[in-house]
């Protein structure tokens, strides 16, 4: 674009108007001088030629200057219209937009003000850290520093911001840098993702619950058989390296079907829950308890000998026998039979140890129930 068509500042525009006025004065002075000279020389034709020449020069220069003024006005009008459309677009944006200079907002669109519960004028009196929770203020400071220092081209992060009414919002920030008047400023695009984050948290909670339900029995809270393989093999592997014992206890509630038939399934469910709590209380926090199926339970005791496992299980048996379990018809007493087997004496593998404990349990059932049986090798025939 030529100089005549360049956008003029208000100061330049005033200078153009002054130049036109000055040229008009020059024109008038030259006309007066030409007229005077012509009288002295008594040459009407010479005066006429001089006048025409000066008038043409001044007219051409004046037309150029007036054209420049008109072009400048057109450009200014176009810029005003462009700025109006830009501000309309920015203010209708679904995202909050703010310009940060020297850690203060120097521009904020309507959406940002609405999002944070302030007026635009109030936002311009604040800085980003003043609307950020105390815990997240160091994060905001560090991200601003990194962006202004050119360590990263673009930043995106989620920060907790405070509304004017004290509510905490999850705000997703996208930050970039722009040079304005020779100075770097931050352009922040901010999106309220509070509802999205809340939904993601709820989904995460549901996923955790589903994960728990896949590995834990919903009635008793004990592990089910799905994770047992992993736990069992891990403990056996450790025991082999450390040359330590691992004991297994199989438990089965005696005559459990009678409880369901006479007292109802609610009483049966309560019996299972009570027994599960007694199992957890009888053993160590590091031991692993599993509802193996129906009224049958398995407990894995890493590092515990058969003797110690037997003693703890016998105490559990006595506690269960003495416990009253409430039901609609009053209360019931329940007993259980237990089988104990230990690595490495009674098996080297998971399946062998479970089979040995189950065999001991079966012997306890056959010999009268309500007792703890330790596995022993069957006699040779």
Describe the structure.
By secondary structure, the chain is an alpha+beta fold. It has three domains: 3-90; 96-196, PAS domain (Beta-Lactamase); 217-374, Reverse transcriptase/Diguanylate cyclase domain (Alpha-Beta Plaits, 2-Layer Sandwich), CATH 3.30.70. Helices cover 52% and strands 22% of the residues. The protein contains eleven helices and twelve strands. The strands form three sheets. It has a five-stranded antiparallel sheet with strand order 2-1-5-4-3, sandwiched between helices. Strand 1 (96-101) and strand 2 (104-108) form a beta hairpin. Helix 1 runs antiparallel to helix 2.
Could you list some keywords that capture this structure?
Alpha-Beta Plaits; 5-stranded mixed beta sheet; 11 helices; 3 domains; alpha+beta; 22% strand; rod-shaped; 381 residues; 5-stranded antiparallel beta sheet; disordered N terminus; Beta-Lactamase
How is the topology of this model organized?
Layout: H1 10-41, H2 44-91, E1 96-101, E2 104-108, H3 110-116, H4 120-123, H5 137-148, E3 155-162, E4 168-180, E5 183-192, H6 194-215, H7 228-242, E6 246-253, H8 256-263, H9 265-282, E7 288-293, E8 296-302, H10 306-322, E9 324-327, E10 330-333, E11 336-343, H11 350-366, E12 372-374
Parallel strand pairs: 11-12
Antiparallel strand pairs: 1-2, 1-5, 3-4, 4-5, 6-8, 6-11, 7-8, 9-10
Helix pairs in contact: 1-2, 8-9, 9-10
């Amino acid at each position: 674009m030529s100089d005549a068509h360049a956008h003029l500042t208000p100061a330049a525009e005033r200078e153009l108007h002054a130049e036109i006025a000055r040229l008009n004065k020059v024109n008038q002075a030259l006309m007066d001088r030409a007229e005077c000279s012509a009288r002295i020389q008594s040459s009407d034709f010479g005066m006429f030629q001089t006048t025409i020449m000066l008038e043409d020069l001044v007219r051409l220069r004046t037309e150029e200057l007036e054209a420049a003024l008109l072009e400048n006005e057109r450009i200014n009008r176009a810029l005003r219209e462009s700025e109006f459309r830009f501000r309309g677009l920015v203010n209708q944006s679904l995202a909050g937009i703010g310009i940060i200079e020297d850690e203060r907002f120097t521009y904020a669109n309507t959406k940002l003000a609405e999002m944070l519960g302030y007026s635009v004028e109030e936002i311009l009196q604040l800085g980003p850290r003043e609307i950020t929770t105390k815990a997240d203020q160091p994060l905001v400071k560090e991200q601003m520093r990194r962006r202004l220092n050119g360590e990263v081209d673009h930043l995106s992060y989620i920060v907790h911001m405070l509304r004017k009414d004290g509510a905490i919002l999850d705000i997703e920030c996208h930050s970039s840098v722009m040079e304005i008047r020779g100075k770097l400023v931050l352009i922040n695009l901010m999106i309220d993702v509070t509802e999205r984050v809340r939904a993601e948290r709820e989904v995460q909670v549901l996923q955790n619950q589903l994960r728990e339900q896949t590995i834990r029995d919903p009635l008793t809270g004990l592990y089910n058989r799905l994770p047992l393989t992993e736990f069992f093999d891990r403990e056996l592997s450790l025991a082999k390296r450390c040359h330590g014992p691992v004991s297994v206890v199989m438990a089965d509630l005696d005559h459990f079907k009678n409880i369901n038939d006479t007292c109802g399934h609610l009483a049966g469910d309560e019996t299972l829950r009570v027994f599960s709590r007694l199992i957890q209380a009888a053993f160590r926090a590091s031991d692993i308890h599993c509802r193996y199926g129906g009224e049958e339970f398995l407990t894995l005791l890493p590092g515990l000998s058969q003797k110690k496992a037997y003693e703890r299980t016998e105490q559990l048996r006595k506690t269960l026998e003495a416990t009253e379990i409430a039901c609609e018809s009053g209360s019931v007493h329940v007993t259980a039979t237990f089988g104990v087997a230990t690595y490495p004496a009674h098996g080297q593998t998971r399946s062998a140890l479970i089979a040995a404990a189950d065999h001991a349990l079966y012997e306890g059932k056959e010999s009268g129930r309500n007792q703890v049986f330790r596995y022993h090798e069957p006699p040779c025939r």
